[in-house]
Amino acid sequence: MVNSDFFMNILDLTITQLHEGFRNKNFTSVEVTKAYLENIKKTDKEIGAYLLVTEGLALNQAEKADKLISLALSGVEGNGGDFPLLMGVPFSVKDAILVEGQKATAGSKILENYVAPYDATVIKKLKTQGAVILGKTNLDEFAMGVSTENSAFKVTKNPNDLTRVSGGSSGGSAASVAAKQAVYSLGSDTGGSIRLPASFCGVVGLNPTYGAVSRSGLISMASSLDQIGPITKTVEDCRIVFDAIKGKDPLDATSIESQISNFKSEIKNIKIGVPKEYFGRGINSNVKKIIEDAIKKAKKHGAKIVPISLPNSKYAVACYYIIVPSEVSANLARFDGIKYGLYEDAENLLDGYMKTRGRGFGIEVKRRIMLGTYSLSSGYYDAYYKKAQEVRQIIKEDFIDAFKKVDLIFSPVSPIPAFKIGEKTDDALSMYLMDIYTCPVKLAGLPAISLPVGNIGKLPVGLQIIGKYFEENKIFNIASQLEKML
Amino acid sequence: MISKDEVRHIAKLARLELTESETAKMQKDLSSILDYFDLLKKVKSEKLKAKNSGLKFKSNLRKDEVKEKPASLANNLIQAAPDKKDGYIKVKSIL
Q1: Which pLDDT value is given to residue A264?
Q2: Which segments of chain B are extended strands (E)?
Q3: Whole-prediction pTM value?
């Protein structure tokens, strides 16, 4: 007979702890999966992290995992009792990532009844490992937003304070991990959509190097920036999930075989760059202090702190909000009421497009399609889109120059902690400015993690650690050393 | 400030039906966001020319070969269409 204490403890275990537990036959994947499903039922009415709980699929996968685990442990397979680290471990998936046979709404009315025809490459990889899918998590419509308030279905509340947002766009994913409704989650980051909710909810979130993880099966927002990444309880878990999903994929021409280096780096041997532009006007003084304290701690343990400058970062939000809407206006042209999703009948083809898109898309999606259409239209292209592409390059070169002097860059993830639900909904520009520290990294295509390093009252604050291209392992090494000091 | 007519023109290009209140909101929002974009005018073009000295793009295309996929995939894809018949997607007449 398993008691409630057992369930509570199970929900705290990390991936390696669960793996050990399976190996030692302390519990089964079905038991762990049921504990998570139970906790989702208990807590999600309040939090609203999930759009869909895939209970049948989860239990089915857990049973299969249990069979494979006992087969491996019996030794008949001749694999020395080994089985994949993620086997039997339950996780949640942002509802912009396709799981075959399950709904994939992208948080939009236009895809409310869309059933995914195939698995995203990342899902295929995790299924191969024997992972267990608990459900699909809430997001801002088509991942456009910083709070999940743009979801067509509901707002995901911050598990640390239910009057506040969970961050976005992968808010459901981050909240599900913070509220112990999943061991880990897959999110996607275009301008900060993994790191911001991870910071707001107090969990670890990695935005991988652009190209490190296949985007096949991720519903596109801005293809030159979108990247799938893990949201986890710990840095170690983050590394495990990243290792499982990374790699070149023939279905994504921008994916690259990771030349990810495996060297060990110690905090006492590294140089940390601190960009002065990321601590200036507009930052909450408590956030600033928490980040500075984390930097001091690294210094105390021997890291060399180097003041650096990223002078063109001040153009990043403007640059980002031209490039992203431009790509959005092209990518979302596919929603025409013909191939999939909502269709509003009309007299002729053109009226059908207008009505379907007019009724299917929410206001933020429309705003970005409009901005993009404007930026790309004849007469404005040079002043907006072309200029933004040029500015993107100088922002990138700022980072490349800085990384000649330092190994990693430390900064806040966001200028403020989680804000109140409804506080910013009338002001699109103030929402856009939430990406001020996260979107420059994306324009450069660099990897960065959000690591929880402190709290203001109940509200967590995340440190952003930015690395060189494909140096995720250096980020993990240093983040995990810092994690232990805090 | 962009005009309501401009908003309506862009909406038509973007194939979006907007309500009157959405048009008014769009006019206000787009104007303030476009004003913010003026920040980019401060970046001197000499600076850009000096820096943009050659983007490195590596061609990463696969071979143009037919890869067999399970029939179930084609079926799943067709099933996603709102209007279909006998395994085909129906479209309104164009001519």
Answers
A1: 76
A2: 84-85, 88-89
A3: 0.95
Among the partner-chain residues B32, B79, B91, the one whose CB lies closest to the CB of A429 is B32
Which residues, given as ranges, of chain A have pLDDT below 70? 1-8, 77-79, 260-262
Task: Categorize the per-residue pLDDT at B11 as very low, low, confident or very high, splitting at 50, 70 and 90.
Answer: very high
Give the contacts of B80 (CB within 8 A, at least 6 positions apart).
A114, A115, A117, A339, A340, A341
The owner of tokens 């206000």 is B28
Cα-Cα end-to-end distance for chain B: 39
Q: Which two tokens stand for residue A14?
A: 């990390």
Domain residue extents for chain B: 4-45
pLDDT on residue A1: 42
Omega before A169 within 30 of 0, i.e. cis: yes
Residue of A29, A34, A92, A94 marked catalytic: A94
B5 touches chain A (CB under 8 A): no
Which CATH code is given to the segment(s) B4-45? 1.10.20.60
Q: What is the pLDDT of residue B63?
A: 84
Q: Where are the beta strands (DSSP E) in A290-407?
A: 304-308
A193 noted as active-site residue: yes
Rounded-to-integer distance, Cα A449 and Cα A465, Å: 5
| Strand duo A448-456 + A50-53: pairing | unpaired
Question: What is the C-alpha R_g of chain B?
Answer: 23
CA–CA dist A266, A480 (Å, integer): 10
Confirm if A376 and A329 have CB atoms less than 8 A apart.
yes
Neighbours of A314 (CB within 10 A): 17
